């Protein structure tokens, strides 16, 4: 048996491709659970093994190569370690979505923005045929290697089996794409770009990638130079440190540009009356809360504990984007935008209501929502929305978020809404996390409060993963309520 590093690595690649491909052919919920398990356990351990093998085996086998290139192993290992930290985070997101089996709303005719009939999925059908043709071509590669090794490129022969396996799964995926083109229904929210200059968002997206890449290059380049301090004069060492700091600043700026680019690509719900009952999650909050939730929640330091790779991969998310993603199993998040705002925040799809008479449409949105989430606040509008939610909704369809409030403000809100629990001991207006806790209710309106744990100092944590334990009982209660009643709203 050949146990050389190349053979072992080739076997690992074939196994990884096969596991991912098989999971992709399964039902959506099972696929998310399988891939989540792979991301959380198998792949991080695999990457750790690759780093260990690279450091240990390569040094013994290629001493001359190691003496020349060992300095580059450190930054490369940092990148791989960052990916290994990011994979469990992604696995938790997939597992969260795959865990819930909320019944989908009844589907109406396939429509797009403005209620127009969706055209046939011709493009998707052509893509399916193209994938099948490519798959057939790839499956012929192993036969070509055996029959005509003289015309086969050197890099193809040792990887022929991997190419053949990829082609086989390509054929299966092509068939699945054809099935999707035949049976696809319109499940996305009826929305359209909120601005006519969406192209600016695309340009900013490219600029953000270049900015992050430049910052990452400066940081890693500085780390490589710092690995040989004996070759540097004091002023060169000082410039190298400045380069690392500048790389971190450029990297962080790029992440902020990503956020700006997504704001240019925000979606608009043209008319709240187009929303089907039970097809969305309504997000209520004061407009001042938008300012606090627009900041980047994850700000890793490039080059430290793999933070650069984590930040580069996730591209930076605002708190509202985390909220929209964690509520995605129930439905897409929609919110009323602030009047007159030129560039809406990202996360929830915005709709806009007139200043006069906005209460009527908001009441209708609350009544038709599958779940209403409200961030507590002391403004008059938020207090009215809280009272209206208590009046119109059953307890399982209301979840309250506790922001960074003072105890005085919380007691003021509780005086107007006696159903709220007593002020939690951990409530702190200076808390770093935007959302401090989650309030949910039993069938008799008995409140329960769950804290959102502080994630400071943990590079693998973010608002999404911190909120998962807090929202777990609320999701379970909503799932049971819908199974018992068979309704999706009210």
TrEMBL record:
Transmembrane portions of the chain? 7-25, 37-57, 69-87, 126-146, 161-181, 202-227, 233-252
List keywords of the entry alphabetically. Answer: Membrane, Transmembrane, Transmembrane helix
Keyword Lipid biosynthesis assigned to the entry: answer is no
Instruction: Report what the protein is called.
Output: Integral membrane protein
**Per the UniProt entry, what species is this protein from, by scientific name?**
Paractinoplanes pyxinae
